[in-house]
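lol ok so funny story. i was supposed to be doing the assay writeup but got distracted and ended up predicting the structure for this chain instead. priorities right. anyway since i did it might as well share w the group, maybe its usefull for someone
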Amino acid sequence: MTPTARTELRRLFDWLVDGAPGACTPDQVVGRIAESFDAGGLDIDRIAAFVRTLHPHIMGSSYVWQRETGRVDVTEAPYAVLNSEMYLGSPVGRVHLDGKEYRKRLDGDEPLGATELSFRARGLTDYLIVPLPFTDGQVQAIAFATRVASGFTEELLDALRDLTRPLARIVEIQALRHTATNLLSAYVGRDAGERILRGNVQRGDTESVRCVVWVSDLRGFTTLSTRSEPIDVIRLLNQVFDCQVPAVDRNGGQVLKFMGDGMLAIFPIESADAESGVCRAALCAATEAFAALDAVNKVRVTEGSAELSFGLALHLGDVAYGNIGGATRLDFTCIGPAVNLASRIEGLTGRLAKRVLLSEAFATAATFSPTALIGSFELKGVDGAPRIYEPQAE
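and the output, tada:
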């Protein structure tokens, strides 16, 4: 290696030891490594880091830099990949399982697997995967490849192995942070998770938020739960929630909690002039959710199963949003009269055989869409007899 290359590798090593300042994610770390290799004149043409994570749907992510693109591409892999022959038989899969370094010359006569053959077809000559062991025993990996005819020199191989020592710690810290974000988003919602990570963790740490409140509830749940096995009830609930959660997420809402067979979500409103637009988004989410439910029911009917249904109430109001609970067990949620009213309105959907009911506040703000007054109803715990509406087809 040239003196310039050695100097740049030393700088890169020190940067990693110092905690990789300025790089908050694995793709940023891989990008900085690529920049340092280029600055040192090192002929490394591909860098790929593979990091497992803890997420309900994502097994892990790959962060791949290639000289021809000059960028870091991020790809997420589902859990199905974990047990696939492609993954288990790949060099990365083997490194993850046995924690041992893997090196293969790609231009010789030695038999090559599918991954190596694809690399050789792109002109790569040498391939190295170094394990990144975490302190809890997990093994992640980073791979390097070159097009140099002679492959990696022993000096460069030793330098790459040295880099992975501080790199393993950086990747572990970032993976833990990523896992914490994933789990908080999955269990308390994206916005609530971000607030918790920013330090909003004290009991009573709440704020007033104006929002559209979404309260839904599965119809006939008591009958279903008494006539079905618990595992089947859970499967049915997941089917119903799968219709709603993606629709709420796509339209800017935040699912806060599942209450047995019910779901509570909010669509935050940033300013008064945004109320109509947020109401439109909430109604769009409702339309998408019921369309998804109709598709599920079409399949259930062909299977000879009963159709599923849920009622939904939408209300516009102010809620107390934040940490509520006991000293050692908190819930990040929302409470207040607005939530209670939405819950009571949802209770009317079954009695009135309606899919969606709207509060007067919501109907007044939803100037973009026609609504129809159904009537005034006395609701438990609610003063007066609120006027209740339903959306009309445009």
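DSSP finds twelve helices and 14 strands in the chain. The longest strand covers residues 310-325.
back to the writeup now i swear
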